[in-house]
Design brief:
Layout (H helix, E strand, L loop, with lengths): L11 H19 L9 E6 L2 E7 L15 E4 L4 E3 L6 H13 L5 E5 L2 H7 L20 E4 L9 H11 L4 E4 L3 E6 L2 H22 L10 H12 L4 H16 L6
C-alpha cells in the first residue's frame, strides 16, 4: 500500500463523518469494547463510496480525534493521513464495504463477552433475553478460524461469511458489526456486548438457559426493528457527553 499525505478534507459531510467515527472510538474505549491499540472501525466517505475512513495503526481508541482518521482508497492508497492502515484492517474492512453495499460502517472488535462466545465450541448468542432478540436472525457464524487477514482472499472469505446478515461472530477471534450509519453500528455493538454479557452471567450459574419460544422471538424482533430510530437518539446522547467532557475528539 502506497504512502501519500494530503491536508484533511474540509467538506462538512466528511467532517461530520470523521467526528461520528471518532466518537465511536472514544466510547468503545470507555465501555471496554476495544483491545489495546488493535481492532478497527471504518466508514465510507460521504460522496466518495470508493474511499473509506479508518483508524491509524497504533493509536489508542481513547485518544482518537477526527483528524487522526485515515482516508484510504479502494487500492489501499493513503489519500489523507500520516501512514497507511495495517494490512488486516484494510483487507477486512474494504472487502466487506465492497461486497455489502449497506455496510457503510464496519466495526471490528474483540470485545470481551462477545469474543468469549466465539471461544467455546458451538458458541452462539442464544435467544434467552429480550436484548438478544435485537439480533434474532441477524447473526452469521464463522466456525473456521483461518488466522490473520493478510490478503484479499481472507477478506473476501469474511465478507462471504456475513452473507445477508449485519453481524458476524468470528470463531476464536471476535465480532464484526455492519450498518448504514455509525449511530446504528455503534448501537448494535453496544447492545450485542450487553446481550453476550447477560448470557455468560446466566450460564455461569450452571443452570440451563430459559430459551424464548421461536414465535415470540420473531414477533419481538419485529417490534424491536420498528424502534431502530432509537439508535440515533442513543448516539446523539453519547456525542453530547463527549462534547462536554472530551471535546477534542472533534479536532
Amino acid at each position: 500500500m502506497q504512502e501519500h499525505y494530503r491536508r484533511p478534507n474540509t467538506d462538512p459531510a466528511v467532517e461530520t463523518a470523521r467526528a461520528d467515527l471518532a466518537a465511536a472510538f472514544r466510547w468503545a474505549a470507555r465501555l471496554d469494547l476495544h483491545e489495546g491499540v488493535c481492532n478497527h472501525f471504518s466508514l465510507l466517505v460521504p460522496g466518495r463510496p470508493d474511499h473509506f475512513l479508518i483508524n491509524p495503526h497504533g493509536r489508542h481508541f481513547a485518544e482518537m480525534r477526527a483528524s487522526d482518521l485515515l482516508m484510504v482508497d479502494a487500492a489501499g492508497k493513503l489519500v489523507e493521513g500520516e501512514a497507511p492502515p495495517e494490512p488486516t484492517a484494510f483487507f477486512i474492512h474494504w472487502r466487506i464495504h465492497r461486497t455489502h453495499p449497506n455496510a457503510a460502517c464496519v466495526l471490528h472488535t474483540h470485545m470481551p463477552h462477545a469474543t468469549a462466545l466465539t471461544m467455546v465450541e458451538g458458541g452462539r448468542l442464544e435467544m434467552a433475553h429480550q436484548t438478544a432478540l435485537m439480533f434474532h436472525d441477524r447473526i452469521a457464524y464463522d466456525d473456521d478460524y483461518q488466522g490473520l487477514a493478510l490478503d484479499e482472499g481472507e477478506g473476501d472469505r469474511l465478507a462471504r461469511v456475513l452473507a445477508d446478515k449485519p453481524v458476524a461472530f468470528l470463531a476464536n477471534h471476535g465480532v464484526v458489526i455492519t450498518a448504514a450509519t455509525v449511530a446504528e453500528a455503534f448501537d448494535a455493538l453496544y447492545y450485542l456486548e450487553r446481550a453476550c454479557r447477560q448470557q455468560i452471567l446466566a450460564m455461569s450459574t450452571g443452570r440451563p438457559l430459559k430459551i424464548i419460544p421461536p414465535e415470540i422471538c420473531r414477533r419481538t424482533a419485529r417490534q424491536i426493528e420498528g424502534e431502530r430510530g432509537n439508535a440515533f437518539g442513543h448516539f446523539a446522547a453519547l456525542r453530547r457527553i463527549l462534547d462536554r467532557e472530551e471535546p477534542e475528539y472533534r479536532d
